[in-house]
Specification:
The protein is α+β, with helices and mostly antiparallel strands and 479 residues long. It has four domains: 61 residues, Membrane-bound Lytic Murein Transglycosylase D, Chain A; 118 residues, LysM domain (Membrane-bound Lytic Murein Transglycosylase D, Chain A, Roll), CATH 3.10.350; 87 residues, Sandwich (Immunoglobulin-like); 168 residues, Glucose Permease (Domain IIA). Helices cover 19% and strands 32% of the residues. It is built from ten helices and 28 strands. The strands form seven sheets. Strands 17, 20, 21, 22, 23, 24, 25, 26, 27 and 28 form a ten-stranded antiparallel sheet that branches. A hairpin with a 6-residue loop joins strand 18 and strand 19. Helix 4 packs across helix 5. The longest helix has 23 residues. It is globular and about 85 Å long. The protein binds zinc ion (ZN).
């Protein structure tokens, strides 16, 4: 009898004390795990992170929750409303890992998004993760009061699909039509067109569903969406020392690795005239034993929309369009600006190369003296009377200081890690090859030497052997 009583007391103790402890927590209630739910999905419903929910319930392994299990959740949690409708693919995610996150099969997720090849998803892609049955009602009932205006989330690009309206797109991202229209300078919300690219700001992506090889501990690409004529930084961390090789858009990847061999940084650049589309970044990670691990990330390239312009050269300089004159000089520039130095001098954003007005931006497709639009403006122009100082846009080593036919008096600075700046058409050059220069140092003066229509500084920036928009590097810092 005593033994039976002891068992009852033990059982009562076992079942009651945890519940009593739960009841004591203010503002909490119980969620019973349903079939098809996982911790991520439940956390979303109640406006928590998976970590917070796991911690609240003392769950060590978030993958091991059971149907019928009772979980503590906030009583005032926004059930249902918090379920996201879209997921922006992050570097290292696969369709299978994303599907798992939302409790659907990869095949079902592919079908919802008209994806035929399960391996063909790309970084920055917007996947519809809402179940088809609930999608229409959710889309139509989003009220502007629910918009997380102060949300400091990321920016993504949405390409308008046939049949979409601004209202529908705004609802997908939990934005108001007004906010979306304002962010994209759209005056009439009914006037959007298929293929139009809309900037979606303040978008907070749900948790990532990384599916990387075991040796890779982190993969980061910034910006997430690459634009024709711009560059992106890729940073990889690994569990053991590896050597990285690979290619993107037919150019070899050259990575700078920390001495411990565990952190690797490289830049990928998109040449102007690259058609918008999805391109693989194919990497091979080779460990000390020679064991290779392949890793492919699909990257989306967007159109640069740089516009076009006609250039009429001065009569006495027309001969400089001679292909043989151009080719030899182009080869010299490519050999110098396509190099790679393991030391890095650049540390922060680039400064402007002159205290002068910008007159012609990078990237415009060009027709010279009425010819075809088969060239583009490979730098940014600054106006300035001859004699205006030219400034080193960042620290580095002078690797060219010479009088060239097309580019006139030209200076090239190596900033390390495959990043170079060029300064063309100067009157005077104040530096010599081998000089170390610092940010803002006067290295020459603006002039009208070489192939020009008047006095100006043409400022060029090359990354991994590709001329890219220098102003991207003024606006943002990669270090
Ligand atoms: Zn120019």
């Amino acid at each position: 009898m005593i033994r039976r009583l002891a068992v009852v007391i033990v059982l009562v103790g076992f079942f009651c004390f945890p519940l009593a402890a739960q009841d004591a927590q203010p503002g909490l209630t119980i969620h019973v795990v349903q079939r098809g739910e996982n911790l991520f999905r439940i956390a979303l419903r109640y406006g928590m992170t998976t970590d917070e929910l796991a911690q609240l319930n003392g769950i060590a392994n978030p993958g091991s929750i059971l149907v019928g299990q009772r979980l503590l959740v906030p009583a005032n949690g926004a059930a249902d409303a918090a379920l996201p409708q879209v997921h922006v693919v992050q570097p290292g995610e696969t369709l299978r890992s994303i599907a798992e996150l939302y409790g659907v099969s990869a095949e079902e997720l592919a079908a919802r998004n008209q994806i035929t090849d399960l391996n063909a998803i790309y970084v920055g892609q917007v996947l519809n993760v809402a179940a088809p049955a609930e999608a229409p009602t959710q889309v139509e009932t989003v009220a502007s009061a629910e918009i997380p205006v102060e949300n400091p989330g990321q920016t993504v690009i949405h390409t308008v699909q046939p049949g979409e309206t601004l209202f529908r797109i705004a609802a997908r991202y939990h934005l108001s039509v007004n906010d979306l229209a304002r962010a994209n300078s759209i005056s009439d919300p009914t006037l959007i067109y298929t293929g139009q690219q809309l900037v979606i700001t303040g978008f907070e992506p749900p948790q990532a569903a990384l599916d990387l090889p075991p040796v890779v501990t982190g993969l980061e690409i910034a910006p997430l969406l690459l634009v024709e004529g711009q560059a992106g930084r890729v940073r990889l961390t690994t569990a053991q020392p590896v050597q990285i090789s690979g290619s993107f858009l037919d150019r070899a990847v050259v990575a700078a690795s920390d001495p411990d061999g565990l952190t690797h940084t490289f830049f990928i650049a998109v040449p102007v005239f690259t058609p918008a589309g999805v391109y693989p970044l194919a990497l091979l990670l080779t460990d000390a034993a020679g064991q290779p691990t392949p890793l492919t990330v699909n990257i989306q390239v967007l159109a640069g929309n740089y516009g076009s312009e006609y250039i009429n050269l001065l009569a006495d300089r027309g001969g400089l369009l001679d292909p043989s004159v151009e080719a030899a000089e182009q080869q010299l520039i490519e050999s110098v600006m396509g190099g790679f130095t393991a030391a890095r001098y650049l540390d922060g954003p680039m400064g402007l190369p002159a205290a002068a007005a910008m007159t012609s931006p990078f990237g415009r497709k060009r027709s010279y003296n009425g010819g075809p639009f088969d060239r583009f403006h490979s730098g940014t122009d600054f106006a300035g009377v001859p004699g205006t100082p030219v400034l080193a846009s960042s620290s580095g080593v002078v690797v060219l200081a010479d009088r060239l036919n097309v580019r006139g008096n030209a200076t090239i600075i190596d900033h390390g890690w495959g990043i170079f700046t060029g300064y063309w058409h100067q009157t005077d050059i104040y530096v010599r090859v081998g000089d170390y220069v610092t940010t803002g140092q006067v290295i020459g003066t603006i002039g009208a030497t070489g192939r020009v229509t008047g006095a100006h500084l043409h400022w060029e920036l090359w990354v991994n052997g590709v001329p890219v928009d220098p102003m991207q590097w003024v606006r943002q810092s990669f270090f």
